[in-house]
Recover the amino acids of this structure.
């Protein structure tokens, strides 16, 4: 609803400086399909933002544009005051953006600790030969996962295939906080979870905020989003539709907004 | 006590090679009962020689399969590399130089296979099937279908690759064992190996976590092809000649070795030591059937049966320990 054009240059500079994420007029195309058109999106430091919208609204595309999975066709993205030009999610991870995708968080046939350290393996050895420090990886993974409430796991070299949906999310969240993420992006974290596990994951989101992280939580469940978010951004058909503070709204109203009735 | 046995059992199943290893032992026992000449040192040295050439290919194929791709052109590369070596040798190029040129050519073939797969998104099965036919055609055209023999005096290097070293054992066996150890360590104990598993297991996740999926695949295509070239050269070291049809069906036997050894056709799971055992099992069957007096036609049929049985067993074990 609020376009970038409506703010002054001074305000814009201030936002870029102070916000953790500042995305302006972001456009992403897939061939002829425009997935995102001039979308503005921001996240303050230590803020939990619920990114809402119906299927196909462009929620996942927006976060994939932010974390370097997709390249943008237009617009500017700032993270921590710096203009970003992420070529891959690797660059985004390096500056502290960790993403836990609904379906892309873990490699099923790999062990818990190998998943935990995937892309950031601990190695030991000399300049020429470097080997995985498996013992250390197991220890660190076990310790970090206990912190997110994953205590009943027997062995770190067991594959993640046997874990429940909640346990898998906990690994992704534990991994993010261990690697010192500033921003945690959760893509439909509660999609296939039981009630108890949903509560657990939402509690982890609140804990992440207490630790000083910012969180983007993508969901189409307005009630869950309302429980943990400070602000709600609603997309529709690849465009900004609404931007509401928690105080200004309630879960019922959010549902109406997501559905486009309000 | 019962818990202890169960723990031991679950630990044992966790060894990826357990299926192929037990299969190998069972088959060795059967053949040694069928023929008194089977369980002799000479016979096993003979088996090991045949196994080495197939096995070196199988290691590369397995490494690539774990990254989620196929290479059916390895059988053709197996003949292309020594063919280049023999032709260069004939015009007076020292064998060491010819060897490295051949391996480089193998690497280039692998690189193009990988590049086409990555850039076009066509399944590697199709791309490398085309490559297999293409390079075999080139081989037949260049050689006119005749065996090319290298009669040069410069054979010390060839001996180091495929000649006899001690007790009738050939150098290729050493390369086979060395390659198994090196690839196994890289796969299980290095960062790169972890990325190979991830790329084959779930390329989307690998990409999302910052792994350069295409780079890993490309490197594995190159390594796979180089191993096939190396294997071809060890055979050249044995015969000092190269038949343009050499290596036909080796691509399928190499895949069979990897699969018997526990590798998953869809990627993300497998073992280099398993591929070693798989190749050895195929060599054992070939030798065992001959010694047992079975007509040699039975060989392929037998491998087919063993292949399917071992995949059934491997799948059951994998489901139990890895889900």
């Amino acid at each position: 609803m609020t376009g970038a054009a409506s703010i002054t240059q001074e305000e814009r500079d201030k936002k870029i400086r102070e916000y953790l994420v500042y995305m302006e007029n972001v456009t992403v195309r897939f061939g002829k399909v425009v997935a995102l058109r001039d979308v503005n999106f921001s996240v303050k430091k230590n803020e939990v933002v619920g990114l809402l919208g119906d299927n196909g609204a462009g929620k996942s595309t927006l976060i994939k544009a932010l974390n370097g999975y997709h390249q943008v066709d237009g617009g500017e993205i700032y993270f921590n005051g710096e203009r970003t030009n992420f070529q891959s999610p690797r660059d985004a991870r390096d500056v502290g953006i960790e993403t836990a995708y609904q379906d892309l968080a873990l490699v099923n046939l790999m062990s818990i600790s190998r998943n935990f350290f995937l892309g950031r393996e601990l190695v030991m050895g000399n300049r020429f030969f470097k080997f995985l420090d498996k013992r250390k990886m197991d220890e660190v993974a076990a310790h970090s996962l206990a912190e997110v409430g994953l205590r009943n796991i027997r062995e770190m070299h067991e594959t993640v295939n046997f874990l429940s949906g909640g346990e898998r999310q906990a690994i992704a969240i534990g991994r993010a906080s261990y690697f010192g993420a500033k921003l945690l992006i959760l893509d439909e974290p509660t999609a296939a979870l039981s009630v108890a596990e949903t509560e657990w994951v939402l509690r982890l989101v609140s804990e992440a905020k207490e630790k000083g992280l910012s969180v983007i939580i993508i969901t189409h469940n307005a009630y869950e989003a309302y429980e943990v978010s400070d602000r709600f951004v609603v997309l529709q058909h690849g465009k900004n539709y609404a931007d509401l503070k928690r105080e200004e709204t309630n879960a019922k109203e959010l549902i109406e907004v997501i559905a486009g009735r309000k | 006590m019962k818990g202890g046995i169960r723990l031991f059992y679950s630990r044992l199943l966790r060894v990826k090679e357990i299926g192929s290893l037990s299969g190998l032992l069972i088959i060795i026992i059967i053949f040694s009962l069928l023929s008194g000449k089977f369980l002799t040192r000479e016979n096993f040295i003979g088996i090991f020689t045949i196994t080495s050439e197939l096995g070196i290919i199988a290691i590369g194929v397995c490494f690539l399969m774990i990254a989620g791709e196929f290479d059916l052109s390895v059988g053709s590369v197996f003949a292309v590399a020594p063919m280049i070596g023999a032709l260069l040798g004939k015009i007076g190029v020292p064998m060491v130089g010819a060897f490295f040129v051949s391996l480089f050519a193998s690497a280039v073939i692998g690189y193009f296979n990988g590049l086409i797969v990555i850039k076009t998104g066509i399944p590697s099965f199709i791309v490398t099937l085309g490559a297999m036919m293409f390079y075999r055609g080139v081989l037949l055209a260049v050689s006119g279908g005749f065996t090319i023999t290298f009669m040069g005096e410069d054979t010390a290097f060839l001996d180091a690759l495929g000649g006899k070293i001690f007790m009738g054992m050939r150098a290729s066996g050493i390369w086979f064992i060395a390659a198994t150890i090196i690839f196994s360590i890289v796969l299980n104990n290095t960062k790169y190996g972890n990325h190979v598993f991830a790329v084959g297991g779930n390329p989307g996740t690998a990409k999302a976590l910052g792994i350069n999926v295409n780079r890993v695949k490309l490197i594995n295509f190159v390594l796979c092809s180089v191993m096939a070239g190396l294997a071809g050269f060890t055979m050249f070291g044995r015969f000092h000649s190269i038949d343009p049809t050499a290596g036909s069906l080796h691509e399928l036997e190499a895949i069979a070795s990897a699969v018997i050894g526990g590798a998953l056709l869809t990627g993300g799971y497998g073992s280099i030591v398993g591929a070693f055992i798989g190749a050895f099992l195929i060599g054992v069957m070939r030798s065992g059937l001959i010694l047992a007096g079975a007509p040699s036609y039975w060989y392929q049929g037998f491998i087919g049966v063993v292949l399917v049985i071992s995949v059934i067993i491997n799948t059951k074990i994998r489901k139990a320990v890895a889900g």
Q: What stands out?
A: The radius of gyration of chain A is 19 Å. Chain A has a mean pLDDT of 88. DSSP finds nine helices and twelve strands in chain A.
